[in-house]
Design a protein that fits this description.
Structural class of chain A: alpha+beta
Strand order of the largest sheet of chain A: 2-3-4-5-6
CATH topology of chain A: Chalcone isomerase
Order of helices and strands of chain A: HHHEEEHEEEEHH
Oligomer: homodimer
Distance between the termini of chain A: 47 Å
Largest interface: A-B, 57 and 57 residues
Number of domains of chain A: 1
Number of helices of chain A: 6
């Protein structure tokens, strides 16, 4: 019984984030999806009985690792710039602390990517961009049991009707999987975009030998 | 003795953040200050014996509230756009949770603002901006005892030689104080730029009656 409970509590792991931005949704450039969303306060995240990842209500209290604005990937996308959006990346605190220690992500690591409007001219601001409405949310988990290939699974909580409460893994054919495997600096995660953690990985020597900072897809 | 220790541990409070960006440094537009900095791992923050605020080593594990890119303020500044920078705002977790509950900042609230390079063309990215080198760090605290005027004090950890480990409060004549008092949505903080917390303040009715979203300095 204790084991069952423990397993349940450790069941959240997800993954990259900016990585995700470079995969199914960002690479596919689905900037048009929009979703009303609140930031719930409760704590708990897990898979449902059917194996869907529960959207974490408390990710805004996880550890923030980076933001980007208007990030695009691939040769054709820079030109087709739509309204730029912010992306914010959060990771579960226990995984973050393990990364600080070892430069690696433990099993059950979970990342959450939120994408927000990049507003202009809000309040006293008269230049640049500030963060606004939540438009998209995606996640990645490191879970060797569920994703025996390279250990990572990718999820989207987006739908035409807004955010869903839980999501099945994206299919293995989604570009997330191949993009994260090929273009990431550490494990299957885009640590090259997380400045403080990239420094940690450099110091601890956990950057993949295959990582090429000059490589473009 | 227990009281002394407790007092010491609760001694960190700071404040606004984006607010800070709109005051001494951002309003004065001191974008040129650059500072090498690491992200320390230890935990503890406090005032020194001489009343200087200790730069918190663990703020990257605090709760993230927002980012901006290239934010400018005031009528003359939009035109003089230098290379845009990211600003990231963090708040102490206990203050964040109290804000979720009440829509107000408790005494001893502390905010940390970090400013980072906004890099282009990093790794697979070919459009937009990603976060890079840390260039500036500022803080605000709500501490009614030390700042009896309106309860808030403002600090900068910047220096021409890089980040300093501790800092005296900026003088009361610094623009932070008047700008935060005049232009903020909740208490002396720029909650109008923190999308999730602005929703909380709207719901709990804690936006200042004097807050005018259309007002420009």
């Amino acid at each position: 019984m204790r084991w069952v409970k423990r397993k349940h509590r450790e069941t959240i792991p997800v993954k990259t984030v900016l990585g995700i931005a470079s995969c199914a949704f960002a690479a596919a450039f689905a900037w048009s999806l929009s979703a009303a969303a609140q930031t719930p306060a409760a704590e708990s995240l897990s898979y449902s009985a059917s194996g869907e990842l529960i959207r974490p209500p408390d990710y805004r209290e996880w550890v923030y690792v980076t933001s980007g604005l208007g990030m695009t990937y691939g040769p054709a996308q820079a030109a087709a710039e739509p309204a730029p959006l912010f992306d914010n990346v959060f990771v579960k605190p226990e995984a973050y602390r393990e990364f600080l220690r070892s430069g690696t992500w433990p099993d059950k690591t979970m990342f959450l990517l939120e994408v927000r409007d990049a507003d202009t001219n809000v309040s006293i601001n008269n230049g640049g961009r500030t963060q606004g409405r939540l438009v998209r949310m995606e996640a990645s988990v490191k879970d060797r049991q569920r994703f025996p290939d390279d250990g990572w699974g990718y999820f989207s909580f987006d739908s035409p009707q807004g955010l869903v409460d839980q999501a099945a893994p994206l299919p293995a054919t989604a570009t997330c999987y191949s993009c994260h495997k090929t273009n990431t600096a550490v494990d299957n995660t885009f640590v090259q975009f997380y400045p403080t953690l990239f420094d940690v990985a450099k110091r601890l020597g956990t950057i993949k030998p295959t990582y090429d900072p000059a490589k473009k897809p």
